Amino acid sequence: MSTFLAAAEAVTAAGAKPAGGAPIRDILVVGVGTNVLTVLLIALIVAYRRGGAPRFRRFESAVERAVGLPGWAAIPGFGAIGFALLTIWGATWDIGLHIDVGRDEGPLGTAAHYPLLFGLFGMFLMGVLSIGLAPRDPAKSSVVAFRMPGVGTVPAAGALLASASAFAMAGFPLDDVWHRIFGQDVTLWGPTHTMFIGGVLAAGAGAALLLAEGARASGSEPFRGRGVLRRPVAAVLAGIFLYLWTAAMHEFNWGVPQYRELWQPLLLAFGGAQALVLARVLGGRGGTLAALGIWLPMQLAMVLAIGGPLETTAPAMPLFIAEALIIEAIAARRWNDPVRFGAACGVGVGTLGLAANYGWSHVVMPLPWQPSLLTEAIPVAIAAGVAGGVLGALMAQALLGNLPSGRRPLAIAVLASVVAVGLGVNAAITEAPSGVTGTVALSNEREAVTAGGDRTTVADLTFSTNRPDLTTDADWVYVLGWQGGGRYLNRLKAVGDGVFRTTEPVPVGGEWKSFVRVAKGRVMLSAPVRMPADAAVDFAGFAAPAVGTTATRTMLRDTKLMQIERKEDGPTWAWMPAMLLVLGLDLSLWVFMAFISVRIGRMAGRPGTIDTPRGLLVDQADRALDAARRRIPTRA
């Protein structure tokens, strides 16, 4: 692995890292490769529809015999889920590399981009395949499939998979266009980055729903059905959502957030309630634990791989265990109304779950929560939890086919969505008061081995500000060092009124960018300690103060120092409209997902329209369950 990484670093070192778009060479290689593979897949589909492609047909029959699902659902469904996991692995690794070494050369510039590219493109191909394999005869498809002139039937969930994967795939070229116009905005929540997150989530959910649609088309029940290979569809769907909410919080997981800390308890409460209420209502008793069984091992393995053999700074991770146990405990009481159950779970997640996450933040999170955060976090987490729990319950009801008639479910869903969006708008508002200065002084300068394993200059740091009220009961006061071959993070220790010192030396040599970050409520400011000049982005840099002297810095809006690659001469007026457009498109995917869920719910209780084999793996799983029941009697 070290040899592989060294080769990737050699490629990067061969030329200067671009600050705008990717090299034309990389664009041509990726463009030609994706077009060739797309043409080959379309040729396979054309041959298949004409009665040819015998090898692929034998493969399709083998898959059907193994899992008991029609090939048009099983092959693209399982394939897209696998490619989604590959995308998540590549994207998570890529974030760590950006934190450790800064911007890259382009789509072929780092090793992490390869699984990311293959995963995104693989999901897109599975979306195309879900349409290409669908039977032309409506009698041989699912009863809720769409009919397209010249194509035939399109599975309802296949339409979601195809559109969402295309949306995510489009984010890659648009990301390059965005960088050429605005520079490389080093933030997870940039417009094109949210296209990746939203598209991968919706496509992954579409893949899981495609398995459910295929199961009902073949006459079996995918939710609460007997057999472990049919019941886990609910766990897989909820697990995909847990991946989304974990990824959305990665800047907090790595300790490099560019947004208010309020976002973390908000997303934990909303996401935990939404995903795990969905798992419980849809999967029945133990459904939340099954969802954790899908998500937690893979997430843990990814973190260990990134921090281990991949030699990259690894993120901390939420557990969602407290949320799962809270929801299972609340479910012990019989609930006739799933929406009220979801709301009750949201309150539990927003209170007891918040308390558990407060403690967990002090165990593993780079920036543990402070008591001052709770004043606003408690009501926000409760409201977010209720909104998420209600939406999770409604989606589960839709898939089970027991949504109440009338407009009440839609009105509740809209209200919960408005609450969630309103909480996000409130959390997004930040301030950067003018006239705030920070004074930094270095002492005991020496050579040392830093987090990246390289030797560089380090020094102890003392920091003070002319606004000590901003550092009293602050959300965080810490020094961040990054992009110098690793990530350095040191929470400063108060030694006087507004005076702080590091507990470990700060890297102030090589390519390290080091600055003091202060956040309190809506105020987010940074004071540079030492940042090297970067001619590619016309950044003059900040020299480290000489030992024994002090340097008074104007404290800047946090994103000024975190995103020095952003172009100041670009059409800044287009940033917010572009962000709103992408968020609107992401929201439209959620609406489409809800529509597809209702459509698949209409299949519940109807006889199957397709004859498929029982499924060898399903039979084996049922036998194992029967043997377990005989050995361990369970309560009816």
From TrEMBL:
Domain of life: Bacteria
Keyword annotations: Membrane, Transmembrane, Transmembrane helix
Residue spans crossing the bilayer: 28-48, 69-91, 111-133, 154-174, 194-212, 233-250, 262-282, 289-308, 314-332, 339-360, 380-403, 410-429, 573-596
UniProt-recorded name of the protein: Uncharacterized protein
